[in-house]
Amino acid sequence: MGNFDQIQPDPYSSSGSGSGSCTLDSPVNESSVTDELSDFRHKLRQLETVMLSDSYEDSENGNVDIQIWKQMVEGDRKRDLKQVLIACADAVSSNDFSTAWILISELQQMVSVSGEPIQRLGACMLEGLVARLSGSGKEPASHNANMLYKVCPCFKFGYMSANGAIAEAMKDEKRVHIIDFRIGQGSQWVPLIRAFAARCGRPPHIRITAFDDSMSAHALDIVGERLCRLARSFNLPFKFDPVHVSVSEAGLQHFRLQPREALAVNFAFVLHHMPDESVSVENQRDRILRLVRSMKPKVVTLVEQESNTNTTAFYPRFSEALDYYNAVFESMDASFERENKERINVEQHCLAKGVVNVIACERDERVERHELVGNWKLRFMMAGFNPYPLNSVVNRTIKTLMKKYSERYRVEERDGALYLGWMNRDLVASCAWK
């Protein structure tokens, strides 16, 4: 993330620079915003001069001005960071750019990349606000769920819930084919490979077909080599098939389906990156579900962030992101030391990118488009899927393990899905389909 102390309240042209930059619906008038800020600073200097003057109390008008300014300054000092963030988002939403930049100047003094959870999140959201105003928010929001796997228990046990459903569905199968549309570093499959290897009798043959739009072909091959070595160490028959095309371009020919293989498909933190009908008539989100349904899988797992940022307008989307990510930051603070390098890396190089994309970008440039489980259920049912029960033993184990991190973690099963959250906020939801 950038150095916020050096951010200047300068509203760049709304057209941005370079290709693919995010744009505003209304242009920012650079001269008017600069004039407003200059006037604001001039008034502050006047206030300082008058208050230091021995004669300011003799002026009746001066007393009135002083009281107004004192109320403003004292009020600002007591303002809550969340309130200032919301006020700034409201100003941006209303195209009141002069007020927005003034509040951004105030936020620069309140946020910190090493402070309390809300201060660290505030730094991310401030970056998003500045990027939105300056038209510079377009960057790959490579939401690396494998990084979150290591430091955020809700994400880790979301994977575990999906693995439980796959293990249950494949308990009697001799040949198992798993399609993973966002494999990352392959961390999800390490415990499942071990579980299959420990199965009574002869272990099944496992084949993983792997996609990942955020990785190079070489990086995907390295993941495959690592998983192959792990499988060999357990004498587990294993094959890794990397697919070097975008998920949006995936077709039946890329899966090399075999008639004797039982098929499992894993959608872990991937579908929210795919544009739906609100972005493009192609509706890749529903297209991939229909494609998977045509392959007649034995089980399909869905793990997603439980947040509503897909089609909502900027202001309510900002408020939703503030509430959601504040819970994420607080939960990680309870689980890891403030100086933990992995946690810092996740916040500054993983979560921050997602937050900035949610706040700064619109239309096809906004790739972080989360939906609630209720919406996902409708999409799956419209594609022809039926609910598949999650593994109750695994879910009970998850509840026990989550409490070891903190009593404030919450795990609930309701309406066929497993919700993992922090206090009163759901963070991750997992469900399965057939």
Offer a quick outline of the entry:
With about 425 residues, this protein is of the alpha/beta class. It has helices spanning about 30-50, 60-80, 80-95, 95-110, 115-135, 145-150, 155-170, 190-195, 215-235, 285-295, 315-335, 340-360, 375-380, 390-405, and strands at about 175-180, 205-210, 240, 260-270, 300-305, 385-390, 410-415, 415-420, 425-434.
Can you offer a commentary on this structure?
- The protein is an alpha/beta fold and about 425 residues long.
- The protein has a domain at about 145-434: Vaccinia Virus protein VP39 (Rossmann fold).
- The chain is about 50% helix and about 10% strand.
- It is built from 14 helices and nine strands.
- The protein has helices at about 30-50, 60-80, 80-95, 95-110, 115-135, 145-150, 155-170, 190-195, 215-235, 285-295, 315-335, 340-360, 375-380, 390-405, and strands at about 175-180, 205-210, 240, 260-270, 300-305, 385-390, 410-415, 415-420, 425-434.
- Strands 1, 2, 3, 4, 5, 6, 7, 8 and 9 form a nine-stranded mixed sheet that branches.
- Helix 10 links the parallel strand 4 and strand 5 (about 300-305).
- Helix 4 (about 95-110) runs antiparallel to helix 5, helix 5 runs parallel beside helix 12 and helix 7 (about 155-170) packs antiparallel against helix 14 (about 390-405).
- The radius of gyration is 25 Å and the shape is globular.
- The two termini are about 40 Å apart.
- Mean pLDDT is about 85; it is low at about 1-35, about 55-60 and about 70-75.
